[in-house]
Amino acid sequence: MKYRRWRQKLLMWLGRPFALFLKMVNVTITARYLLLEREAARQGEESDTPGSTIAELIKWSYADSPYCCYEDEDFDDVKQLFMERPSIGELEADEWNREFDSRLKAMELAMKMLDDEGVFALNQPRESVCVLVEIMPPDEINTEIALRLNQAESPAMQAWLAEAAE
């Protein structure tokens, strides 16, 4: 599936007082084990480490996800909008916090809107998907957002809470 709907949602919110900070705020849509085995096998071949070991190490990593930067070129117009925003790194502390919070909330809202449309239940049960909006390095806010975006009792969320939550 192309990310047209995602792009449209992100563009819609970028046009409002919200924005996303692509270098710090990352979205991971982790469909439970979807493509994980293939990615783990690929990395295992490169490192002579068993794929099962690699899978355990990377299953919650946005950067190692097979979806990381997938069809990245479809987001060029979104990236351009980011470039037009004030540089968050040049803001004073209070402004930086407000801008960062706005960007994080915008990303969370975009994911909630997509979830409400059923995007995360297209090819699997929704409870097998853990929708995340995360910052790096990991922070407690990641858990707070994850609990708002997912049913706490879902198998995918329970696994994430046990294995990756801050």
Brief overview:
This protein is mainly α and 166 residues long. The protein has helices at 4-14, 36-47, 51-58, 76-84, 93-116, 140-149, 155-163, and strands at residues 25-31, 129-135. α1 (4-14) runs parallel beside α4 (76-84) and α1 (4-14) packs antiparallel against α5.
Which structural category do the helix and sheet elements fall into? mainly alpha
Q: What portion of the residues fall into strands of 2 or more residues?
A: 5-15%
Biggest pleated-sheet summary: 2 strands, antiparallel
Order of neighbouring strands in the sheet with most strands: 1-2
Instruction: Write the H/E string, N to C.
Output: HEHHHHEHH
User: How far is it from the N-terminal to the C-terminal residue, by CA?
Assistant: 31 Å
Sequence stretches where pLDDT stays below 50 over 5 or more residues: 13-32
Helix content: 40-55%
Extended strand count? 2
User: If you average the pLDDT, what whole number results?
Assistant: 76
Radius of gyration: 16 Å
